[in-house]
Amino acid sequence: MIYKFYQQHIFPHVLNQVMQTPSLMDKRRELLLPISGDVLEIGFGTGLNLPFYQQVNTLYALEPNPDIYHLAVQRVHEAPFEVQHIQAHAEKLPFADHSLDHIVSTWTLCSVANLETALDEIYRVLKVGGTFHLVEHVLHDQNLYIQRLQNLLTPIQKRLADGCHLNRNIQRALTDATLELRECTYFNAVGIPKIGQRMLLARAQKT
Length: 207
Ligand SMILES: C[S@@+](CC[C@H](N)C(=O)[O-])C[C@H]1O[C@@H](n2cnc3c(N)ncnc32)[C@H](O)[C@@H]1O
Prior knowledge:
binds S-adenosylmethionine, single chain, alpha/beta, Rossmann fold, 7 helices, seven-stranded mixed sheet
């Protein structure tokens, strides 16, 4: 009961604050400014990406958790373009095959329960030549000590942060899903604890 209260009434506010860390907002800008047209964003969260879409027509805001989406509503109302909320999971996207030019994920692939299925779905609904744009925290690719800690603490992190895995190798998962990397940059995010600091900004294309 206390855990349910935490999940419904405390975690969404913590998420909303943490995800506004200035270095993360800078990465949102870098990722999203070049994107135009109709866009699907998976794990829309509290709507923090909205100010960075400059050339978008319709944004399909896929967010399964109503307690988190609740904190996005005001931002959605203020958006200068159409935003359609879709309450669904990335593992079962309610879109036709080959129907989208752009899909976005910002710190969502850590949280989807089944990463492989979600990436298969993203591949399915992208048009040939369509692009998946993402920025995610990842399994550390250089520091074995941090990698071990990430593996050790992921079960606790999943409980505290709504299913978030600290130890996902996102680049390998993209390649396994046969998405072709067009851009791939690793960085350490300023202002984030070392255990979740290693991040990947990438654009991957369905060819
Ligand atoms: C760490 S938050 C990131 C939120 C937002 N993308 C941002 O950048 O602030 C992860 C988000 O993924 C959502 N999520 C969790 N499981 C999901 C799934 N299976 N499919 C789509 N979204 C999911 C959560 O509800 C949450 O909003």
